[in-house]
Write a structure and sequence with these properties.
Elements lengths: L10 E4 L8 E4 L5 E2 L4 E10 L2 E7 L8 E2 L2 E3 L6 H13 L3 E12 L4 E10 L10 E7 L12 H15 L11 E4 L5 E3 L15 E3 L4
Parallel strand pairs: 4-9, 8-11
Antiparallel strand pairs: 1-2, 2-3, 4-5, 4-7, 5-6, 5-10, 8-9, 12-13
Length: about 210
C-alpha cells in the first residue's frame, strides 16, 4: 500500500502507538490501515456415495480439481457464501449442513471453512470458473491432481469419517488444521478417467 484510501496521501510502514506490529499508517491524517486474513468458504457436496468436484478454469491451479469454494462476500454469512460459491462454480443447489473443516493458511493470509452439503438434485454443470464438474466416488478421487492442500485434507477427513461412521451420527465434529506451506503436486491429467499425468513436474499450490 502506497497511498491512504481515506485522504490519498502517502503512507509509511511503522508500528503505531500501543501496537506491536508494523502497519500502513497515513502520514497526513493518521489513519491506520489494517490487513486481516480473508475467509474462503466452500462445501463438500454429496449425492449418495459420491462427492462433486470441479476442474478449475481459472488461475491459480488452472486444470486442477477442487471442491467448490471461494472468497466470502460482504453482507453474507459463511453458510450463504458456501452455498453461493457452490452454485456459481458447479451449478449445484445444496442444503448446507454442519461445519466440517477449518483450515488456517497463514502463508497466504487465509482461513478456509468447508461445510458438509447435501445436493438437492443430480443437476450440475461447468461454469466460467470450472472446465468440468463431476460426481466422483472415493476410488476415483484424483489425489495427485487436487488444487490445494485444503482440498486434499478436507476430502481425506471426509472419507475417513465416513468409513468410521462419524457422519450423520448426531455428533457434529469440526476438524481444525494449520497448513504452513504449499503442497507440491504433479501437473493435471486431461480428465478423471484418463491415464496418469504425462508430466511429473511439480508446481506450488498458490492460495492454499
Amino acid at each position: 500500500m502506497k497511498f491512504c484510501s481515506n485522504c490519498g496521501h502517502a503512507v509509511s510502514r511503522r508500528i503505531p502507538p500501543d501496537d506491536n506490529r508494523e502497519r500502513d499508517v497515513c502520514d497526513n491524517c493518521g489513519a491506520i490501515h489494517y490487513e486481516n486474513p480473508r475467509n474462503v468458504v466452500g462445501t463438500v457436496p454429496v449425492l449418495e456415495d459420491k462427492v462433486l468436484l470441479c476442474k478449475r478454469a481459472i488461475e491459480p491451479r488452472y486444470g486442477y480439481w477442487t471442491l467448490p469454494a471461494g472468497f466470502m462476500e460482504l453482507g453474507e454469512t459463511t453458510t450463504q457464501g458456501a452455498a453461493r460459491e457452490t452454485l456459481e462454480e458447479s451449478g449445484a443447489h445444496v442444503e448446507v449442513g454442519e461445519l466440517f473443516t477449518v483450515l488456517n493458511v497463514p502463508h497466504v493470509h487465509q482461513v478456509h471453512l468447508f461445510y458438509l452439503a447435501k445436493m438437492l438434485a443430480p443437476d450440475f454443470a461447468p461454469s466460467e470458473e470450472s472446465l468440468e464438474v463431476k460426481l466422483v466416488a472415493e476410488a476415483g478421487i484424483p489425489w495427485q491432481e487436487l488444487a490445494f492442500p485444503t482440498i486434499h485434507h478436507t476430502l481425506k477427513l471426509f472419507f475417513q469419517d465416513r468409513a468410521e461412521g462419524r457422519l450423520g451420527d448426531g455428533r457434529p465434529r469440526v476438524h481444525q488444521l494449520d497448513i504452513n506451506r504449499p503442497m507440491r503436486l504433479a501437473a493435471p491429467a486431461a480428465n478423471l478417467d484418463g491415464a496418469a499425468s504425462p508430466s511429473s513436474a511439480s508446481a506450488p499450490a498458490y492460495g492454499a
